[in-house]
Amino acid sequence: MSPWIIAGFVGAGLVGLGLYALVVNAQPLRKLLAFNLIGSGVFLVFGIVARRGAVGPFPFDPVPQAMVITGIVVAFAASALAVALMLRFAEETGRVTLDPDVWTKPKPDDGAEDQ
Amino acid sequence: MTPAETTTAGGALLVLAILLPAAGILASFALGGRNAEKIALGSAPLALLIALAILAEVWRSGRPIVYAIAGLSPPLGIALRADGISAAMLVTTALIIPAAGLYARAGFATPPEKRESRKALTFWIMLQAISAALAIVFVSGDLFNLYVALELLTFAAVPLACVEGRAETYAAALRYLLFALFGSIFYLLGCALLYGAFGTLDIALLAERMRPLPAVTAAAALMTAGLLAKTALFPLHIWLPPAHANAPAPASAVLSGLVVKGSFFLTVRLWFYVLPALPAAGFDAILGALGSAAVVFGSVLALRQARLKLLIAYSTIAQIGYLFLIFPLASGLHPWTVDGWNGGMMQVLAHAFAKAAMFLAAGLLYESLGHDKIAKFSGAARAMPMTFLTLGLGGLSLMGLPPSGGFAAKWLLLRASVASGQWFWALVLLAGGLLAAGYVYRILAPALSSHPVVLKAPPRRAGEAIALTLALVAVALGFAPESFFQLIAIGRPGLATAGLP
Fold first, then answer.
1. For residue B242, which of A66, A93, B100, B172 is within the disulfide window of CB 3.0 to 4.6 Å?
2. What is the pTM of this model?
3. Could you tell me the residue ranges of all domains in chain A?
4. CATH architecture of the domain covering A3-114
């Protein structure tokens, strides 16, 4: 098995794990971590694309690598914005979940262990 | 097909269209709160001039304007392209953003006697950021560039949705952001697969190299799913009503009228410009079916809302549904696709103006009545006739009654669905119009009664005039001349590649 096939499976696995986490977790912070997990998988796929597209003297195609760098910057900015929003949301409401059932029936200690 | 694209006449205008709002953002940061408003409103006429110049140049040359960044042609460089629909969308943006800005002066202006606030600074900067991001979306010729543009659009739209700083707006904005982030990461995964298969992400080059590979199908599905989440197409719509209904009125107008159109525009780019060679009747039908479900579902929920702003937000979900009928009705190389394409694009513009007008009117009602509960509107139309005229005219376009842009859009879509023999879309169009009539009636009927009403504050004349103007534009679109449809056909690949196998 060539290295990039293994890397491809790892990338697919990361995307799958992230999707699973997205579906089963109600807390926005965990959803954000799931987003970053999927992001890592996607960047790995870009890496494989770069390796397979090697032409001429370069061992890699530089274009996908440039895209990964841009993608990482964008994902970082997105994570920062999301964390800032979550902090403000928690400040205003004392909650860490968007679950509407929890919203309408407040429980004092709910979700505190997730912080 | 040309092997390498170089900058055409007027190409520099595309750069200006992006740089002007981007420079405005930087200047607003540097010069501080009080000046942000002046910069945002002062640059608006310039932005409109640039958009009109792009439109004139596209119209004059009859083909897309191209700008190769740094003189490098794709695949090595990145191209900016503006065709007929880009030009039309740029002008629409350049009209609605300043309208929202002028309206917002009542809430976000900082006259000399008032202290500068972070809220106002955020609002004016994000308004310009939406302008900039939309300009990039409309003129980008590269799928990765479009990914960055979409992210910029999200980063500008989310703070606008929660600029009021109430708990429920944070929850709505957070949900919006999470939907948008997952949408864009799947779009990006699709980009990776397309680049892996064809070695470029330039739209024109991809269209030339396109072959039906399994990777393309996977990429198309991933990218479309991501874009649908950002466009709030049923069943990925749940973030939209709270985000749009809880934002301040001018922000709602921009979010509902323009921002969702950004990701829709990209979906159109993907399916009509990159993938027309893909045999995908199934995909078209799925998008059409989801759109139909959105029309029915959104309209029925709009009928059940107690608050005006939520009603208008659910109506957006229904009207977005109409947009997706363009996929079954304008793809392929049939004579009726012209009607489908024209109808879909007309719906984009008509909804942008009508919905912006209605959200601004809803904001005025909220200011004057102190609430936006539809049940308590009795007699309000007598106190605020202009505001209700705006709601009525906007509603006219949403229902698709003549004369209005909405009528033209739905009539064209209806013609395409009959001509193509896809009669079930016609049923959706008609049912949607009937349901829209229902929810517009719900707003207007109680307001027109002779019940005495006490206003907390007299309506703002300037705000009323802005909202009414937008509604009148939505109506005037119904009289769009034939040349408008010729404009939006410029650069449409279905026509350009009609001779290819």
1. B172
2. 0.90
3. 3-114
4. Orthogonal Bundle (1.10)
